[in-house]
Write a structure and sequence with these properties.
The structure holds two protein chains of two kinds.
Chain A: H1 7-28, E1 34-35, H2 36-46, H3 56-65, E2 69-74, E3 82-87, H4 89-113
Antiparallel strand pairs in A: 1-3, 2-3
Chain B: H1 7-18, H2 24-44, H3 50-57, H4 60-70, H5 96-111, H6 114-134, H7 140-164, H8 172-195
Amino acid sequence: MEPGDSTKQARAAAQLRKGVLEYCVLALMRDRPRYGVELLQALEESGALATSQGTVYPLLSRLRRDDLVTTTWQESASGPPRRYYALTDSGRAALDEFTRVWPGFRDAVDTFLATPHPSTGDLA
Amino acid sequence: MKTSQDPVRDYLSAVEREASALPADRRQELVADLAEHIEVARAERPDAVIGEILAELGDPRAIAATALAESGTGPAASPAWGGSGAPARRGKVHPLVPVLLLALAQPVGMVFPDEGGSLIGGLVRITGAVLLCTSVHWTARRKIIGVLLAVVLPGVAMGVWNLSDGAPEGSGPALVANLAASALMAGTAAWLWRVRRA
């Protein structure tokens, strides 16, 4: 479970995270808007998707620029107002599309990783 | 090296320094987002040491590198439009520049006679197209639409006109065609200006 056992393991995890992180962030907003610190906590608790927190803000900024999320300020009972991120229609569409393709993707990878590997004869 | 008593300010200026290749507005947005995060985290965890909150945010260099990659100006961004040209300067041109070049290529070309006019107009147009494509102010789709409407379509129309007719410059129909092309490019430029992103 330790992400940093070796450089190679860290690299594999980082590559995977890079690909799926934005969809996980979108998924976190599926049911209700979330503010930044809240999103980061959820990622942190997931373990595998935990990342250097600051790198999520450039991602959120791009999602906003690409019109996948919108932001609104809301007052908080404690401390400063929070900036809440919510899905736009295109954000929801992107999430739905990812949700559709992900199982096939996951199963294909599992198949490749499974031992024994399917023999080449199966492809003929 | 300057040292201050304020670790948050030091941290944010480190991010700002590392992100110097980002367009200024992007850089300010990043720093503001991080500042906001620090404020909220501090309010929610009053017992946490500030160093802990900053450590969780991570290395300023890693954050800047991610921001560069996300904004399409970093080395990790798609190389399709940029070639090997200095990556740090990509996209930092003011969005007005490509828009104006595209809008003015045709009128500028019409000022000069014959071949010289076409050449100068063409050069201005190509420069505008290149700056448009390397800018961070438009999505790839809008860049393609802009190039199609402002460069490819008028170019094809001119080519067909010259081949089929060979009418001398300045004659009535040629003037009308030139004005129509100008209007198309000006319209495209106006649209690009409207849909640009900050």
